[in-house]
Amino acid sequence: MSTTVVLETWILFLLRAALFLACRNYLLQNLYHDLQGLSTERSTTPPASDNAEDATELDSLPQPSTANAPATPVPSIMKGKRSFHSVLSRSLFALCFEESCTMFGLLMCQALGLLHGRTRLLNWNISLSVLLTSILVLIPLSYSLVLSDTASSSIGAQARQRPSFGRILLNTIPVCLFLFFLEYIPLPEGLHSSSFIATTLSRLTVLGTIILGGLSGFGAMTAIWTFLPLFGLNKGLPSDEDISIAEQGLERVRQDLARQRYEVQKLQSSQPGSNAGWLSNVVTSVRGDSRLTSATQELRGLEALESQMSQNVEVLKQRQAEAKYAKTMSGKLLNWGGRLFAIYCVYRIIITAIDLVVPLRPRAAPGEANPTGADMISTWLAYSLSLVSSGDIDPEKLAAVSRQISLGLVGVIILSSIRLVLRGVARALKVTSRNLGASLMLLILAQLMGIYLLSTLIQLRTSFPSPPSQPGSEAEDINLFSTLPEYELFGSLFDGSFLLTAGASAVVRWFGDRIGGVSGTI
């Protein structure tokens, strides 16, 4: 390895470290606190005792005052110290962000002819290996660690400690099962390379294509249902009186819920102790268990009712706020932009369904650039941009720009669904801690960011096909895109998952509008 390659690699590693620290210390400040608020949106009544863990990262908030119980003292050594799962999620997100930026930077260096060819190829393989390891091993292992923290989150000191070696070893079991089943994902036909990284990347791309297609379908249907009244249920504007009546009903249910919780606690505390006689224990436990079971079932019913009513109140407030905002100038502009985007989503669904059943364009063979690869609207936008920039229109450049615009619009559709998906995950897992919920969401974002980056690079390969190999070519002549599989191997899979998720989301929202009246929430 030449001195130039070593020097340039060291410079790239220093840039990696700078990106990692900048993302972890600055970029994540606002994002993590936004995720903390998102993890507690539309939550039910708070638990009786505050979680001491949340207080470590929220020192600026006022301490809650209680009438009967004194505040639990927090050791001075723990004040201002982040929990382990918070440090873990921040570090993994920063690592994925840093490697993603590095890979895009290497592609820019290749386009501009910067750095030595061996340097680009070496650091490209390093970034690709680190990103694959993070997506397939480190982040799934962190899921297990964060989710296992929910069981001990009520004990603040234990939740902040680093996990033991035995606990980490136990949490590797789900990761090993995930990797085991990943090996059973069939490789697409036409895959030329059989290296470990190539096959692993292809299997991950199959899984990631399904996930991204599902997010795109869900985001497209969300935009359609939100901005096109033809599809959603046309509801009137809720008045202040409607919201007040709903809040009063919710308050009565919460009072009943508090009384029922107190009754359940009394029944639990009245269970026989170990010093009582055997016969009295049996008689008392049988009688008490039946009452406790009945009270617990009633408590669960009240909790479900309270959750549904709380969700309805939030929907009424949201609809009223959106209606007031829609009357402003910025609201009108946003609605018009949203309607245009929703119309594009309708067109995208229709053209994808037709193209999946009866292909409108010939499928390109592996290794060849797709002649079109974009929808009509993206092609029209690219054509308009080419007219503004210059009079000469190169068909190949026009096709490349149209594919990139189509890819960007798919990214916008995915971003429009991320917030609802993250909120639904936090609700489904019943995460009550703000920090635990934010850490879990940050891990999901890191994994989705890595998967979307790899899928984007694979799709961009059609815009930058590999140069023809020449006799005696060296490593510096290798196009970095040639290390990635062809997108044509995964296009139909994306279209299928996109249509299935869009159809399923439409059915769920239609029934939700007619039955529950809370469409648009998860």
Describe this structure in words.
The chain is mainly alpha-helical. Among the domains are: 3-57 and 80-184 and 368-485, no CATH class; 240-326. 70% of the residues lie in helices and 0% in strands. The chain has 14 helices and no strands. The chain has helices at residues 3-39, 52-56, 84-112, 117-149, 156-160, 165-182, 196-227, 240-269, 278-326, 329-357, 376-389, 395-428, 434-460, 491-515. The relative contact order is 0.14. The model is unreliable at 42-56, 58-79, 154-160, 369-373, 465-473 and 518-522 (pLDDT under 50).
Structural topology:
Layout: H1 3-39, H2 52-56, H3 84-112, H4 117-149, H5 156-160, H6 165-182, H7 196-227, H8 240-269, H9 278-326, H10 329-357, H11 376-389, H12 395-428, H13 434-460, H14 491-515
Précis, in short:
The protein is mainly α. The chain contains 14 helices and no strands. Helix 3 (84-112) packs antiparallel against helix 4 (117-149).
